[in-house]
Every structure is written in C-alpha cells, then in structure tokens.
Give the backbone structure.
Amino acid sequence: MLQTICYNNISLHDLKTKFGLQRTFDKTFFPEWQLPKLTEITPEDRAVLDRVRDAYFNLIEYPPLLEDGVKMVILAPLLNLTGFFLHPFHIKSKYAIKLITLDKDLIIEGKIDILILKDQLWIMVIGSKQATFSIEVGLAQILAYMLASNTPSNCFGMIAIGSSFVFVKLVKAPVPCYALSQIFALNNPRNELYNVLAILRHLECMALSDDLAVAV
C-alpha cells in the first residue's frame, strides 16, 4: 500500500533501506570542502563575519532561538557575501518537493527552506534548524532533499543548526553514497564562518563554471 510521510519524519535507516544510501569515510571522496584557502577571505569579509558572529551571540541571549532568526542573522549575510543573491542565481523559499521510492510504495513530502537555482538547475538547498536541534536530526532530511534533486550526479549540501555548520556531499551513482565535512562551530575560539564562506565561494565558482550542481 502506498504510504506518504513528511521529510521531518524520515530517518537515515529509511534512506538506507529504501534507496540503498551508504556513508563513506574515505578522505578522497569529499575533497571540495578542504580545498578553499582562507587567504581568499578579505579583511572586509572578516569584519562582516565577525559582526555576524557577534549578532548571533547577542541573539541567543534572548531565547528561544528560532529557525528564522538563524536565517536572518547568519545565512542571509553569508549568501550575500557569496553572490548567490545575484544573477545568474535566484532563490525560492519553502519549495515543495516529493521523493518516491523505486518500488513506488513510499512518497516523502516536504518543503525546502531555501532553494538556490541557476536557470532551472538546483544549485543549493539550505537546511536550517533552531539551536535545540542536532546535526544528526537535520542530516536525514537534507539527504532526502539531495536524493530528490534534479542534478544527475554529485550534489552538495549544508546544514545550519544554530551556531554549527556541516557540508554534505552525495554521489548518486552507481550507488547513492555520502560523506560529511568537519563541523564548523561559532563557539570555537576562531571565527569559523571564515571557513564556511570560503567553501561556499568555492562551490559557487564551480557552479558558475558548470563543474557541478550544489544542494545546500
């Protein structure tokens, strides 16, 4: 019997059993997050990102920290600095999507927080959650989004959970396989938004050159 469930209720086990999804810890599988050089981040960029970090720490003094707060205070400045708000990219918010299993016994429905496109090709899917969530909670959801994307091969993603960020790479064929970057956290002594911006700019440049499609 056909079953429909919400993306919020999907688990990594569901994706493994229904789509054959696997995780790899092979360091050569996901080099993209390690390639960008922080020397490419200008003093002006650092000043903006330091202000963003200060704004976040001010925000958490007045709970609850909601998902919309993370989007306004952290994600919007990051996307503005990368250029994802500019042509040839454009944005859709709360974009409805369906993922159907190969045997067509399960439909997974949900809405992507922010979808960035280049023409009709998915470039970036942003998943953000409030600070009370964990990276693990958001991982199954963003992987389901990436499996449903219109990109033929590699997809890239980013999860923003309060002050923590992690990048995801999914290779669809021959068997869906994914890996994670390290977690970048604002609570660390150095402002790791520098790293996040460098990686986003690297993926943006690759998207502009048509070397990949990105789902964040």
In short: The mean pLDDT is 84.
